[in-house]
Structures are given as C-alpha cells and as structure tokens.
C-alpha cells in the first residue's frame, strides 16, 4: 500500500511538471531566431550580433539557426507554422516579406496574415562592388557604363538569387541607365561573392552588411552606393546620381524581427522593448552605422510602425518586380 501511494504521488508530480513550465513567466527556455540565408549573409551577421546582448537581457539563451532556400521562404514558412509562444522568431527582410510576395505566384504562407511584426532592425542599402584584381579597368561608374554600353550582355552581375534585393538593385540600375547586362544568380552570399572574386562575374550589387568586410580588407572595390545620400561608413564612395549622372536611386531594404501570427501582446511588447534598447545603445549603433553601413531606426519603433512599413513595402516592391521582369525558376 505504501509503495503504491508513493508511486502515485511521484506520478502526479511528474505529470504536473509541464503545466508548471507552461505557467512560468516568459521566457523560461531557449529562444531561436531563424534566418533564411546562409552563414555570412547580412541577416546572419546581424542576428548573431543581436543574440548576445539579447541573451543577457532575457536571461535565457538566444540562438541563431539558418534554414536556407527559396529566397528565404523555407525559414519563413517554418516560423509561420510554429506555436505563437515567444520561442521562435524570424529575422525577415524586405526580400522575404515584400519582394517574395510579388515574385512568387503561390507562397505557402501569407506575409501579412501569418506573422506578427515585432520590431524593425534597420535599413540596409546596396553597394556596387567589383574585384580590383580581376577587373582593374572598372574603377568608376563611368567605366561600368562604358563597358556595358560597348558590349550588350557582356557585362555580368552576380546576385544572391532570382528576385533577391541584390538582383533587383542591379535590374533597377540597368533600367535607369538603359543597359543590357547579364544577371547571374547564385544560391546565397558565398556563391555570389566567390564568383566576383574569381572573375566569373563583373559586378555585385551587394547588401552593405555582407559587403563591408571584403571592402575593408581590399578584396573588392566599391563603385557607388545605391542610396540618395552617401553612407557614413563609406564617405568616399559616391552615390549613383553623383557618379553615374542618373536620377537619385535608393534600393535599400530592411531587416526586421517577426514571429508567428497572434503572438501574445505582453511578449511582443517585451521583445520590442528589449531589442529597441539594445540597438539604441551607442555601441550597437556604432557597429550598425560604421561596420555594417546599416541605418538603425531613428527612434524606438513600435510593432504597429513596423506593420505599416511592411504593408507599404509589399506595394512598393510589387511595382519594382513588375518593371524589372524578375522571375523565379
């Protein structure tokens, strides 16, 4: 009888553990930030830098996991299908949540309905880069224009995939300058950068967050920034309008933190506040502006402000995709 009583008590205690864990305040176990692009991509660099101070702020490990493929759609779908419990987030981009909405005829998720916008992380510009070793003749925008106009389809530009911002930036530049350049898509950042450094392609309209390391090491030469104004991290690199004689151009996209739909408001509020606090510190802002050439939000931004940015960008990039003629295989 005593043994049966003790066993029953132990079983009851064990059975009660999950309920206790569920009732514990959030967070009480590790949090994952999913990314849709390979290691060394701009999203990966940003997420890993954010994870360390976020771990300290929340008191639980914050880990980064990348599930690559389909222009970020694999990671986005994975997050959209997770429980809205505050333990899975996505570092999304204007590519995954605005461009892809226009680029893919059928997505396995809705970029608005299936996600909770949590916090905007910053604006990410593009920079046209070349290999100074493989293309020593391309030192300025005028050199690029002359080469592309002299031999249509001979000048090539790499991208991180069909419809990626690195593709659309090149397509926008080509349309504005009335150039006929050949687009060469790769699966992610490593392949595109390797092709440029090997001389397999001529240009790469890369995101600054992923390009700055190679620029600082002298592996690549920045030709122009694809923004209306010069960047603080690249003060000597002219804009498209300054160097190319074209109308001002801005191909900047954004990074943002999203969660599955219907994330409880207290969790949204807490995560928004913690991330805003971290990216507003002088140290983190300095890293963003000077190291990554990313423009942080001007002030702490709310989930609703991020939602409005997302909705506006869906419409904006739909028109860019239409004009560029970008397609996916």
Number of strands: 10
Low-confidence stretches: 1-22
Strand order of the largest sheet: 2-1-3-10-4
Please tell me the CATH architecture of the largest domain by its name.
3-Layer(aba) Sandwich
Determine and state the CATH class of the largest domain: Alpha Beta
Approximate helicity band: 40-55%
SS-based structural class?
Answer: alpha/beta
Write the layout of secondary structure elements.
Layout: H1 2-23, E1 31-35, H2 42-58, E2 62-66, H3 73-80, E3 88-93, H4 94-103, E4 115-124, E5 126-130, H5 141-150, E6 156-159, H6 165-177, E7 182-185, H7 189-197, E8 203-207, H8 208-216, E9 221-225, H9 240-244, E10 253-260, H10 265-279, H11 282-291, H12 303-324
Parallel strand pairs: 1-2, 1-3, 6-7, 6-8
Antiparallel strand pairs: 3-10, 4-10, 5-8, 5-9
Helix pairs in contact: 2-8, 2-10, 4-12, 6-12
Description:
This protein is α/β, with parallel strands linked by helices and 329 residues long. It folds into two domains: 31-123 and 252-324, 3-Layer(aba) Sandwich (D-Maltodextrin-Binding Protein, domain 2); 126-244, Periplasmic binding protein-like II (D-Maltodextrin-Binding Protein, domain 2), CATH 3.40.190. The protein is built from twelve helices and ten strands. The chain has helices at residues 2-23, 42-58, 73-80, 94-103, 141-150, 165-177, 189-197, 208-216, 240-244, 265-279, 282-291, 303-324; strands at 31-35, 62-66, 88-93, 115-124, 126-130, 156-159, 182-185, 203-207, 221-225, 253-260. The strands form two sheets. It has a five-stranded mixed beta sheet with strand order 2-1-3-10-4, sandwiched between helices. The protein has a five-stranded mixed beta sheet with strand order 7-6-8-5-9. Strand 6, helix 6 and strand 7 (182-185) form a beta-alpha-beta unit. The N and C termini lie far apart (70 Å). The relative contact order is 0.17. Residues 1-22 have low confidence and may be disordered.
